[in-house]
Amino acid sequence: MEQTLAILKPDSYAAGNTGRILAHLEAEGFTIRGLRIVHLTQEQAGAFYAVHAERPFYGSLVDFMTSGPCVPVALERENGVKHLRQIMGATNPAEAAEGTIRKQFATNIENNAIHGSDSAENAQIELAFFFSSSDLIAAQ
Ligand code: CMP
Question: With a 6 A CB cut-off, is 109 part of the ligand 1 pocket?
């Protein structure tokens, strides 16, 4: 079993797609170990995406991620990191495969519905950004 972090982004929350995306994740075999609704500050969003600080889209990304509430979700599944990335689809929904979350729910490369950790190592760092270990429900 492998943990990963998804964030249902402000576009998903604003469009009322949170429940549909969570249902999709559960149908794909993910167990939800933690769930929050947070409205990130500029400082928090900037820190979360610090790896992109030099990219031209960084300011816009931080503005978007602070534009409304988002839903961080701690997920667990066999091969969880890779499987989440697969079912999310390409970063740009125009390039995302049929049936992927971004194909169904994203608008464009910035308003792209969902974030998923890109490695098991980053998943642990990103999970700790939103959840303390006592917030996470252990496997039953
Ligand atoms: P995410 O998986 O959350 O990781 C970084 C985010 O930056 C990415 O999703 C996109 O929402 C955003 N992003 C990546 N590339 C671009 C781009 N070229 N223009 C705007 N936003 C981008």
Answer: yes
Say what the pTM is: 0.97
- Residue 13 Cα distances to 16, 42, 55, 97, angstroms: 5, 18, 25, 22
115 is catalytic: yes
| Tally of structural domains, the chain | 1
Q: Is the shortest distance between the CB of 112 and ligand 1 below 6 Å?
A: yes
50 lies in some domain? no
The whole domain housing 96 covers 2-37+69-135
pLDDT in tens, the chain (140 residues): 999 999 999 999 999 999 999 999 999 999 999 999 999 999 999 999 999 999 999 999 999 999 999 999 999 999 999 999 999 999 999 999 999 999 999 999 999 999 999 999 999 999 999 999 999 999 87
- At residue 7, the 3 state secondary structure works out as strand
| Neighbour-count burial for 55-89, b at 16+ CB within 10 Å, e otherwise | eeebeebbebbbbebbbbbbbbbeebbbbbeebbb
